Amino acid sequence: MIWFFFYFLFFFFYFFFLFFFNFFFSFFFFFFNSLFSFESGFNSLGETNIFFSLHFYFLMLLFVLFDLEFFLLTIFLMTLKSFFLIFFLIFFFMFLAFFFEWFLKKLMWVF
């Protein structure tokens, strides 16, 4: 039990030392690009209620729905060969959703 106490004290002071060593000796450079969110293109300072298109999110949803589910269902079909009807119904609803989004003109690549 006493070894546990010594290990705990050792690691506590070790991490405490590393934290303050990093805090006092780290280099911090302020760049104007650090004000922007990562890969979003929106400025985090200033007016925040700027309207933008949701087309990117629809395309992301289509990618997740049709690409990833297609590969996961293909692997599922290869392991369970007796569930053809379930596989057919899932793909039928996927194609139905695809044509529904095509009908709503959400598949346009130009904004």
UniProtKB/TrEMBL annotation:
Any one GO MF annotation of this record: NADH dehydrogenase (ubiquinone) activity
Membrane topology note: Multi-pass membrane protein
The reaction(s) this protein catalyses: a ubiquinone + NADH + 5 H(+)(in) = a ubiquinol + NAD(+) + 4 H(+)(out)
Major localisation: membrane
Enzyme Commission designation: 7.1.1.2
Regions that span the bilayer: 6-33, 54-77, 83-104
One Pfam match: Oxidored_q4
Stored InterPro entries: NADH_UbQ/plastoQ_OxRdtase_su3, NDAH_ubi_oxred_su3_sf
Location in the cell: Membrane; Mitochondrion membrane
Key words, A-Z: Electron transport, Membrane, Mitochondrion, NAD, Respiratory chain, Translocase, Transmembrane, Transmembrane helix, Transport, Ubiquinone
Entry GO terms, CC: mitochondrial membrane
Family in the record: Belongs to the complex I subunit 3 family.
UniProt function note: Core subunit of the mitochondrial membrane respiratory chain NADH dehydrogenase (Complex I) which catalyzes electron transfer from NADH through the respiratory chain, using ubiquinone as an electron acceptor. Essential for the catalytic activity of complex I.
Designated name of the protein: NADH-ubiquinone oxidoreductase chain 3
Phylogenetic lineage: Eukaryota, Metazoa, Ecdysozoa, Nematoda, Chromadorea
Gene name of this polypeptide: ND3
